[in-house]
Amino acid sequence: FMSKIDQAKLKRLQKTYGVTESRDWPKYVEAERFLKMNIRRMQDIGLDRLPPQQILDLGSGAGYFLFVTRLLGHSGLGLDIDDCLLFEEMFKLFGLKRIIHRIEKFRPLPETGAQYDWITAFSISFADHMAEESWVVREWDYFLKDASRHLRHGGRLYLDRNPCRSVSFYSIVVAEFVLGRGG
Q1: Selection from 25, 37, 47, 96 nearest residue 67 by Cα
Q2: Helix (H, G, I), strand (E, B) or coil at 145
Q3: Pairwise CA distance, residues 119 & 59, whole Å
């Protein structure tokens, strides 16, 4: 996977963004670390054993997941906010496409002109990271219904959440709701 990355451009990004004083998430220039992490993610959900799939990756960050899956024949689109120049440059380095969009309560996902086999999201929190509470059932119900509009028949949604400030991923009520929807 490393051999598929333009090493000169990666080194330039590492020199520019790989300092702790940078406010643009310097850890994301650690290509070997994030490639390994995203190879595991791809294997965990079984994309390494499937024919070509269309993927919409929410909160796509630097694009490592989409890069790894593309090298295995899948195609995808990233969706993220535009608050980190490093992420934009990493998407260019990987030759990936993304849409700028903030996921918010009761706001639909943008129209992309495509249907997807997978909608993925890793280490995400759609609520403010410093909030005491994350989304409640109402917000999750809206989001899941809206996301399903973008899935092909039989498509799958895979969400991997970051905890909120209270150090939990979700309340018992939200957990029961998600489990009741097949999560």
Answers
A1: 96
A2: helix
A3: 11
Tell me the H-state helices in the chain.
7-17, 31-44, 64-71, 85-94, 137-148, 172-180
**How far apart are the C-alpha atoms of 85 and 126, rounded to whole Å?**
20
- Please tell me what DSSP assigns to residue 76: E
Structure tokens at 83: 């608050």
pLDDT block averages, 10 residues each, the chain of length 183: 95 83 68 95 96 97 97 97 91 97 94 97 70 75 95 94 58 81 81
Q: What is the pTM of this model?
A: 0.88
d(CA 145, CA 154): 14
Residues whose CB is less than 8 angstroms from the CB of residue 177 and which lie 6 or more positions away in sequence, other chains included:
137, 140, 141
φ, ψ of residue 164 to 5 degrees: the values are: -85, -175
